[in-house]
Amino acid sequence: MDRLLLLISFVFLVNVHAVAEDKDVLTRFFRILPESQSHTFYGSARDRYFKPDSIKVFVWNIKKGLEANWEPEFKKFAENRDLILLQEAYRTQLFNNTTASFDGIRWDMGIGFLYRMYNNQATGTMIGSNVDPTEVIVKHSVDDEPVTGTPKSITFAKYPIEGQQDELLVISVHGINLTSHATFVRHMNQAQAVIDQHTGPILFAGDFNTRTQMRTKYLMNMIQKNGFKTVTFKNGHLRMRFKFTKNYLDHAFVRGLSVSNAEVIGQAYGSDHKPLFLEMSVDQ
Question: Can you spell out the DSSP letters for 41-89?
Fold first, then answer.
């Protein structure tokens, strides 16, 4: 399956380049920032610490907010959440206005790339939180997507917890997609490097693009070796699947945290992915 997708991507890329006279045609459409310039934020958090007994989380690949139902559904489903993890965040005017309408939330974005043809609007992963982070890290995938030549981003943020010395590490991930298994491993290893340096609780969630059994197996082995628990969702079968292999793409994993409630919202049509809810507490 990986070879087939790579072949499809290669043929499409050749056709794209055939339209242009130079080899840098894609740079006319996309702009890649250095990692050091790929973090941006806006909004003000209302709280200083997370309450350890209840942290409500919302996770959604929003398909760039381009579906007609996205805005009202986002406002409904993300309301009263302490943490909001997004993939394919896309800084259009609609997106900016919608997220800015949430009082007491700070939005930290890990920019994957900019669309030059749309006034350099940024897309990538994002974390919204009612607590200010103490640190935010953005990592670009080592490898690029073969068609667009753009990286995927992972956003890492650390937050203080009331009454505890350890901080909460939150990871919003969008896994590299139309590439080989080896590129997926390299992308997950970037997350592993940050996880290795953190001793407190961790939430690791998003669209991992585990479209093959090999990717899924690698991720689950990584999770197990690092002491994570897999979050089991009510209606978990409603999560996004890769249509050729039927493997689930969206996951959530926790370490040093307990999940009391987790569900997939099936009555959501603002993206091709269904939103994920979970409520968690910090282990004592």
Answer: EES--SBSSB-TT-EEEEEEE-GGG-STTHHHHHHHHSTT-SEEEEEEE
Q: Which two tokens stand for residue 169?
A: 């590490």
Task: Please tell me the pTM assigned to this model.
Answer: 0.91
Could you tell me if 159 and 170 are in contact, meaning their C-beta atoms sit under 8 angstroms apart? yes
Structure tokens at 283: 């282990």
Regions of the chain short of the pLDDT cut 50: 1-23
**93-100 and 70-77 are packed helices; what angle lies between their axes, rounded to 10 degrees?**
20
Residue-wise pLDDT for 156-181, tens only, equals 999 999 999 999 999 999 999 988 99
Phi-psi region of 186 (alpha: psi -120 to 50; beta: other; left: phi over 0): alpha
Residue 205: name the closest of 158, 254, 160, 238 by CA. 254
Rg, the chain, Cα only: 18
